[in-house]
């Protein structure tokens, strides 16, 4: 388990135990598990909370993917647990809206080129 209450050495040991196969499951919240870890041995990642920031959520997902190995065929399963009519559902909808608007802004130059 990785929590915000652990010191750096304890968190690092939990990471090493997971990566080496000594432990088969690792539990951590988004904040504790999204920064400074490589957990690419995971086959499944289950999120029970989301950040208000799309980049922080993406970073947490990348912690479970081997981004260095471009030839990997491993595609971990990403699951977001969201209760109906909950704050998590509201956050997920807000995140999707943010990402959609960001994509439009980032691709605006391409839209202009296509119209001319």
Total count of strands: 2
Gap from first CA to last CA: 55 Å
| Secondary structure category | mainly alpha
What would the average pLDDT be, to the nearest integer? 78
Question: Helix segment count?
Answer: 5
Which sequence of SSEs, written as H and E, runs from N to C? Answer: HHEHEHH
Percent of residues in helical segments? 40-55%
Low-pLDDT runs: none
**Beta strand %:** 5-15%
- Overall geometry comes to globular
Question: Could you characterize the architecture of this molecule?
Answer:
The protein has 116 residues and is mainly α. The protein folds into two domains: 81 residues, no CATH class; 34 residues. The chain is built from five helices and two strands. It has a two-stranded parallel ribbon. Helix 3 links the parallel strand 1 and strand 2. The longest helix is centred in the last third of the chain and has 20 residues. It is globular, with a radius of gyration of 17 Å. It starts with 7 loop residues before the first helix and ends with a helix. The model has no long low-confidence stretch (mean pLDDT 78).
Fold blueprint:
Layout: H1 8-20, H2 30-33, E1 44-47, H3 54-62, E2 77-80, H4 87-106, H5 108-115
Brief digest:
The chain is mainly alpha-helical and 116 residues long.
């Amino acid at each position: 388990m990785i929590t915000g209450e652990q010191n750096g050495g304890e968190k690092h040991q939990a990471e090493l135990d997971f990566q080496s196969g000594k432990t088969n499951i690792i539990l951590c919240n988004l904040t504790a598990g999204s920064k400074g870890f490589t957990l690419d041995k995971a086959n499944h990642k289950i999120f029970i909370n989301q950040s208000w920031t799309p980049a922080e959520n993406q970073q947490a997902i990348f912690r479970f993917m081997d981004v260095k190995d471009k030839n990997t065929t491993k595609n971990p399963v990403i699951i977001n647990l969201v209760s109906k009519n909950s704050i998590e559902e509201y956050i997920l909808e807000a995140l999707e809206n943010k990402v959609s608007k960001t994509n439009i802004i980032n691709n605006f130059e391409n839209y202009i080129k296509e119209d001319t």
